[in-house]
Design a protein that fits this description.
Layout: E1 5-6, H1 9-16, H2 22-37, E2 40-41, H3 44-54, H4 64-77, H5 81-97
Parallel strand pairs: 1-2
Helix pairs in contact: 1-2, 1-3, 4-5
């Protein structure tokens, strides 16, 4: 492949679909090559299609409190904001669905 390559949403979906068989392998190889070369591009429309298809997996809303908590985690632990958002949402989900509150500062979760 040479030049800029626009990736359609189905390529990303196939690359992550464990039931897609040979399509999954081809899509994953294509994405790996595009990532390594830096030539892959995706339109906003294709990105929205991916989000729409995977949106059913989202069980925890992102609220202003989530964003504030992510900022706190990022500042405290010197993490990127986006990694901190993942942790903040995980905390938020754990608080709603676990019998025990789990916090990023929980000593039992730290690596020894």
């Amino acid at each position: 492949m040479t030049g800029t390559i626009f990736v359609d949403s189905n390529i990303l979906i196939y690359a992550h679909d464990l039931d897609a068989g040979a399509k999954r392998l081809r899509a994953a190889a294509c994405l790996r090559e595009l990532w390594d070369s830096g030539r892959g591009r995706m339109s906003a429309t294709a990105a929205r299609e991916v989000v729409r298809n995977y949106g059913c997996w989202v069980r925890s809303p992102t609220t202003p409190a989530t964003v504030i908590r992510a900022s706190e985690i990022a500042e405290t632990w010197k993490l990127s904001f986006w990694d901190s958002m993942i942790l903040a949402i995980a905390e938020q989900t754990a608080q709603r669905s676990c019998s025990r509150k789990i916090s990023i500062t929980d000593k039992s979760l730290r690596a020894s």
